[in-house]
Specification:
- Helices cover 42% and strands 14% of the residues.
- It is an alpha/beta fold and 351 residues long.
- The chain folds into two domains: 166 residues, Rossmann fold (3-Layer(aba) Sandwich); 178 residues, Rossmann fold (3-Layer(aba) Sandwich).
- The strands form two sheets. A six-stranded parallel beta sheet has the order 2-1-3-4-5-6, with helices on both faces. It has a six-stranded parallel beta sheet with strand order 9-8-7-10-11-12, sandwiched between helices.
- Strand 10, helix 11 and strand 11 form a beta-alpha-beta unit.
- Helix 1 packs across helix 14 and helix 8 runs parallel beside helix 9.
- The chain is globular, with a radius of gyration of 21 Å.
- The protein starts with a strand and ends with a helix.
Length: 351
Amino acid sequence: MRILAWPARRNADRNPFQKLLYDEIESAGDCEVMEFSRASLLTWRAPEILHLHWPDVFLASGRGWRFWPRYIFLRLLFLLAALRGTRVVWTAHNLQRHGQKNEARLARYFWPWFLSRVDGVIFMTRASAQQALKQWPALRDTPHAIIPHGHYLPLIGAAPAGTPAPPADRPPLLLFFGAITPYKNAWKVLESFLQLPAGQARLRICGEMSRSKPDLRLQELLEQLPDSHRDSVSYEDRFLSEEELLAALREADLVVFPYVDVLNSGAAIFALSCHRPILASDNALFRELQEAVGQDWVRLIDGGALSGGQLQAALNEARALRGSGAQPDLAAFDWSRIGAGTLAFYHRLAR
């Protein structure tokens, strides 16, 4: 089977998900995966599958009039796929996002057309499938599969698990990482942290602030940090390299994800792959994750409002868990299962 993937491996430094997926697919069966490019449409014989991941981001990055050539290109791409008998698969990493660039044009021109033309959809959670089918009735007759986001153990190995717990007299460390936008509520982590007694814990926030949708509340809190907590809070407005992120997770005791309106989180899977427990919003995504790995590893924010008391309780449990040497069971996110499931879905569509 020939698979043309957009992207396949070219984004591995920023997001290794696709590389891990297609490496597994190629090793699991008689498959060839090629990186999508305009040239590949002319030089490669017709693939059975064209697998897309973020077509909306491709259009959102076309500012002003540049949106239209990109939109026309996508429509021609789908026409060519139909003429060559190629099935188009979309992995729904995100659904329609509020505040996205070119939001109005996407809503009017892209989504109605795209969702009526795609041949198959892969959802990563039951929650995202339920929401998409409710929001977009056009998808109800489209074949779909629920295949979770894979873990990152092939990249991480067992190094973080072998990291000894820090000395008992060293304040525990909370970590928030990833792109910083308002829906991720990084500001709420800091606000709740400031409720803890000075010197009782440390907080590290690292991730690039969105330029189009900055977390203004976080910026305000950082500017007004009280002297009592100034030495306990660090903020880095940048994405960490993979090596730096692994080092940060080795040091951290607990990772916090107080997200709203989110259906998938590779960052949460990455933290669990490093054997670090998480404290997360009580929503469908994290309830599914808790169901898969257990309450010890995914603690849900009680009552929807993060507080200093909840941070402290979660930190205490996280430090005890770290001292026990326990590891989460990530079997549900094993790449062999994910590769097999994806390949089976390809064959289902090709037939």
